[in-house]
UniProtKB/TrEMBL annotation:
GO terms for cellular component: cytosol. The record marks K85 as: Lowers pKa of active site Tyr. This is 3-oxo-5-beta-steroid 4-dehydrogenase. Residues 34-301 form the NADP-dependent oxidoreductase domain. The keyword NADP applies. SUPFAM superfamilies: NAD(P)-linked oxidoreductase. The keyword Protein biosynthesis does not apply. The active site is at Y56 (proton donor).
Length: 324
């Protein structure tokens, strides 16, 4: 497909479509006040896809920025693609719709374009996002993900969400949903870590065989916070091949990374609150990598995750024990 800055949507298996590049909106507490201006800048540049989550504690700010841009006449609601996420403490079926409605209220919208299960691991139900006992032990919860999925299907039937998806699911967990008796709507996407050092080739092939789109989080790698990032992997954007290709095309290594995934049909949601980087990340529609260059970038794969979530590796549904 020949994507352009004005036309870069790809089809989903339910008849809807998703812009192939979006803005990730996760913000640490100290930079949360940058959310509103950053979202507004992104809209002015041409972004129409915004990746949000109740867990990020800034849905209200994202919604406010977009509502102000709608009021200005810069965009219409139907131009904007919102992705929201169901967090692990709300997997019990009776909690699913109220949690989605909270997100809709925060964003000031009547329905959301895409709503996904954020990770396949359930925690103790309630409003404490990271529940632990008095000894600091994580409080996991046993929920059948198929029951959660049925509650999401009911939300779609009620017109609260247009498309349903998942995130961080491995092949077996996807098959659990796909093989669910009475399945009404299969996932349109699986949002996972994906970049030149972690190309997800096997999972991509499996998802493509079921018409499920891969959405790449951390498409440029991550920060180097040792509390949750695997530092065994070197910084992605310092890779010599990515730097040399950047020089050839007068692009940054980040733009080479994003273009690599886009040419694989993978949606990218780079996160930034820096105006120049937000602009740079969107300027990926005016060049193409050759087949040989794509092959060489794919060969950079180290099969190591930056985001391995080791603190939850004892959860029965921890997804990363499997190869894919």
């Amino acid at each position: 497909m020949n994507f352009t800055a004005n036309d870069h949507r790809i089809p989903l298996n339910d008849g809807n479509s998703i812009p192939i590049i979006g803005l990730g909106t996760f913000a640490e507490k100290e930079i949360r006040d940058l959310c509103i201006p950053s979202v507004k800048i992104a809209i002015d540049i041409g972004y129409r896809h915004f990746d949000c989550a109740l867990l990020y504690n800034n849905e209200h700010e994202v919604g406010k920025a977009i509502q102000e841009k709608i009021a200005e006449g810069k965009v219409k609601r139907e131009d904007i693609f919102f992705c929201g996420k169901l967090w692990s403490t709300f997997f019990s079926p009776e909690l699913v719709r109220p949690t989605l409605e909270k997100t809709l209220n925060n964003l000031q919208i009547d329905n959301i374009d895409l709503y996904i299960i954020e990770i396949p691991m359930a925690f103790k139900p309630g409003n404490t996002f990271y529940p632990r006992d008095e000894n600091g032990k994580w409080l996991f919860h046993d929920v059948n993900l198929c029951d959660t999925w049925e509650a999401l299907e009911a939300c779609k039937d009620a017109g609260l969400v247009k498309s349903l998806g998942v995130s961080n699911f491995n092949r077996k967990q996807l098959e659990l949903i796909l093989n669910k008796p009475g399945l009404k709507y299969k996932p349109v996407c699986n949002q996972v870590e994906c970049h030149p050092y972690f190309t997800q080739t096997k999972l991509l092939k499996f998802c493509q065989s079921h018409d499920i789109v891969i959405v790449a989080y951390s498409p440029l790698g991550t920060n180097r916070d040792p509390t949750w990032v695997n530092l065994e992997c070197p910084p992605l954007l310092e890779d010599p091949l990515l730097i040399s290709l950047g020089k050839k095309y007068h692009k940054s290594p980040a733009q080479i990374c994003l273009r690599f995934n886009i040419q694989r049909g993978i949606v990218v949601i780079p996160r930034s609150f820096n105006a120049e980087r937000i602009k740079e990340n969107f300027q990926v529609f005016d060049f193409s990598l050759t087949d040989e260059e794509m092959k060489n970038i794919k060969a950079l794969n180290k099969n190591i995750r930056f985001v391995s979530l080791p603190m939850w590796k004892d959860h029965p549904e921890y997804p990363f024990h499997e190869e894919y």
